[in-house]
Amino acid sequence: MMKISARNQLKGTIVDVVRGATTSHVRIDIGGAIVTASITNEAVDELKLAKGQKATAVVKASDVLVAIDG
Amino acid sequence: MMKISARNQLKGTIVDVVRGATTSHVRIDIGGAIVTASITNEAVDELKLAKGQKATAVVKASDVLVAIDG
Amino acid sequence: MMKISARNQLKGTIVDVVRGATTSHVRIDIGGAIVTASITNEAVDELKLAKGQKATAVVKASDVLVAIDG
Amino acid sequence: MMKISARNQLKGTIVDVVRGATTSHVRIDIGGAIVTASITNEAVDELKLAKGQKATAVVKASDVLVAIDG
Amino acid sequence: MMKISARNQLKGTIVDVVRGATTSHVRIDIGGAIVTASITNEAVDELKLAKGQKATAVVKASDVLVAIDG
Amino acid sequence: MMKISARNQLKGTIVDVVRGATTSHVRIDIGGAIVTASITNEAVDELKLAKGQKATAVVKASDVLVAIDG
Lengths: 70, 70, 70, 70, 70, 70
Known about the structure:
The structure is a homohexamer.
Chain A: E1 2-4, E2 8-19, E3 23-29, E4 34-40, H1 41-47, E5 54-59, E6 65-69
Antiparallel strand pairs in A: 2-3, 2-5, 3-4
């Protein structure tokens, strides 16, 4: 079992995979909220990502911004 | 009302703010899952981020990786 | 009015929007210098980004590198 | 002369360098606007970054978000 | 000679350049391992990137995750 | 065995771990070249990262820039 340093690992189910020329968009339902990942087509092929599959959205803490209403 | 291009805007409540020398870690409960953001101390001060506050974790789609068990 | 933690928020005017298969490039004139953003087509549609519109280029401090002549 | 793929290379002058335990914040005046970079202390030492020095803020297009008032 | 703050500057040779609608994938052999960069088509054109060319993969330390078997 | 979408997964051995107030720097020897990762102290603790340990530097393709001499 590989473990990774990223602080954010949100488990869910793939809702859809939209494929572009070199870049795909993978949407994951993490329990109500949807997370969109923009990844290479090669990654989609290698991991055989498809609708209905269990998947985890992984995000490094330094890539998260915080917004407030103010 | 400002709108931002980031595909991922996860609403929640700040659980804690841990302050370092120049970088703080802000943890947001987005409804069960916790998202950790690593941001500057200046941002924490300017937005007056504190435990219990409503906040949104904002992540660009190109900063999301996808992991699977396989 | 939403406020966001990103240290860099450069106000300007959209110069052009070039749309790809899944990813668009938006160029913003921030007062002489041009900033290019690579974002999803969905974001372009949702924010109705178009030439001539006022827009802000938002960049997290941890995504800025520093170069010098040396 | 090294050339780099990043679409955004904003030339300016360093306003200040604030050093933390492992991470420094470097602020660069790019002609009115200030850009803040969060980089390692090692990078600050190696490039001998200091107030008053000419420097370029380098940002990859995929790290730029777009915000609008709406 | 430009110097850049990024801690990771891996020298190698371009193996191939795959061009998409707006985004290209450039693969660089850094001495056995291959590093893939996803950059804009404009950058590919401006730097005239092509197979066989010497190139350096540049990565900011804050964009590196660490994984272990465990 | 977890699989991850990142195109760049460089296997190596940890050379050192330097701990800051909230952020650590982990250096990994990937076979000659050294890769530096800037990650949270929490990640270092959770993965029990230490000198001499096998580890993989993971980088998303969209976080790689390309530089050339020119």
